[in-house]
């Protein structure tokens, strides 16, 4: 009776390699989100606070659309050294596992398959090249009349990368802006 342990291990290792390939590709995927905050502060004060926050994070004003009441800021997202190293380490581990399976399946070659581990830095390089890109933050500030309130509230709509929205939350929370 023939053993299916090695072929099934090989198949599982290949499936893991495919998953790793898509994981590395997803590391540079655009994750733009839209979020709205409501504040009792006037429009100018809210916009000034967000503008100060973005300027401190090296964004610059790139467009002002009066018709849409929208302000666009641009900045460059820097790649993360930690993530580049992590992706390289994952690829190194995966290629070592694949070379081990190959060396067991083809004992005549032995550990010659460990040569494929030289491709592991490609994952970090790919991330480093694709992750550094210009990023836009679009803001729309408008007054909203609420029922029963005499003062209008300010609605801030932010369209930005998920990480930038996360970084913006503490600034807006201390300013009295709350998510609806």
* Sheet/helix structural class: alpha+beta
What proportion of the residues is helical, as a percent range?
40-55%
Biggest sheet character:
5 strands, antiparallel
Number of strands: 5
Enter the CATH topology name of the largest domain.
TATA-Binding Protein
Strand order of the largest sheet: 1-5-4-3-2
- The oligomerization state is single chain
Number of helices: 5
Order of helices and strands: HEHEEHHEEH
CATH class division of the largest domain? Alpha Beta
Shape: elongated
N-to-C CA distance: 65 Å
How many domains is the backbone divided into? Answer: 2
What does this structure look like?
The chain crosses the membrane at residues 81-102, 109-128. This is Cytochrome c biogenesis protein, putative, Ccb1. Pfam families: CCB1. Keywords: Membrane, Transmembrane, Transmembrane helix. A 5-stranded antiparallel sheet has the order 1-5-4-3-2. It has helices at 5-26, 43-56, 81-105, 121-131, 162-174, and strands at 32-39, 60-65, 70-77, 133-144, 153-161. By secondary structure, the protein is of the alpha+beta class. It has 2 domains: 1-30 and 79-131; 32-78 and 133-180, Kinase associated domain 1, KA1 (TATA-Binding Protein, 2-Layer Sandwich), CATH 3.30.310.80.
């Amino acid at each position: 009776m023939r053993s299916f342990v090695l072929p099934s291990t090989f198949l599982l290792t290949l499936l893991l390699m495919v998953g790793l390939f898509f994981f590395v590709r997803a590391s540079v995927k655009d994750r733009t989100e839209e979020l709205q905050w409501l504040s009792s502060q006037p429009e100018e004060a809210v916009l000034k606070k967000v503008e100060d926050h973005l300027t401190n994070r090296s964004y610059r004003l790139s467009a002002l659309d009066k018709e849409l009441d929208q302000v666009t800021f641009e900045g460059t997202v820097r790649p993360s050294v930690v993530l580049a190293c992590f992706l390289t380490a994952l690829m190194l581990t995966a290629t070592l596992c694949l070379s081990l399976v190959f060396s067991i399946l083809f004992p005549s070659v032995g550990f010659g398959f460990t040569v494929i581990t030289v491709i592991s830095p490609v994952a970090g390089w790919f991330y480093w090249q694709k992750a550094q890109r210009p990023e836009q933050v679009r803001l729309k500030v408008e007054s909203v009349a609420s029922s029963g309130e005499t003062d209008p509230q300010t609605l801030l709509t932010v369209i930005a990368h998920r990480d930038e929205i996360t970084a913006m939350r503490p600034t807006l929370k201390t300013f009295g802006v709350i998510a609806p």
